[in-house]
Please model this.
Amino acid sequence: MSNNYWEDVYQSKQPDQVSWYQQQAEKTLELIRSQNLSLDAELIDVGSGASLLIDQLIEAGYKNLYVLDLSETALKTTHARLIDKGLDARHIQWQVADICTVELEAQRFDLWHDRAVFHFMVKEEQQAQYLQNVRHALKPNGVLIISTFAEDGPTQCSGLPVERYSVEKLAQRLGKGFKLIESATEIHTTPWGSEQKFLNTQWLLLQ
Ligand SMILES: C[S@@+](CC[C@H](N)C(=O)[O-])C[C@H]1O[C@@H](n2cnc3c(N)ncnc32)[C@H](O)[C@@H]1O
Model:
């Protein structure tokens, strides 16, 4: 998976023409809200794409948002949309980077959110790099929210192979140091009406 692959996706498709599009990221917002973090908490959304989650987080009052994706076009689309809506994007930190190799500040984040990104990492090396970054950049007792395709979800996304997870498999993949807070499955309906089963999980990074 190259940077260009995702850049091409966002250059050639409107945000609502991709299978993962959600008009409202309601479930995610609910999961984030359930952590009872202060509105000053540091939140990172990795592989954010052009998701409307950021709009909703700003509307909910969260101030310190870090938005990272491989695609510059995706982030520019989000930024332009926030400005159009009159939402305050001043405090957002934007970064075009690969989450596996980017250097993040140690113990910066209270919450790390990933919807449909980690499941593209089908190679052990990428998974290890990604998880090393999670452990490095999350504060002790920080929260990790990961949504992947469920065990009986699709085998591909955007034409790329994905790894599907049960809670047990994901727990094993994350390794020691993460405690499961909660998990649930969710059916996502694509813009063209097909259904995809996701596994939403929340974990605590133990000290
Ligand atoms: C299926 S989309 C999900 C987008 C968004 N999280 C959502 O739920 O709408 C996957 C996103 O992950 C990004 N991505 C894939 N691999 C990445 C990586 N290694 N580092 C950063 N972003 C990545 C892609 O550019 C794309 O925006």
The chain is about 30% helix and 30% strand.
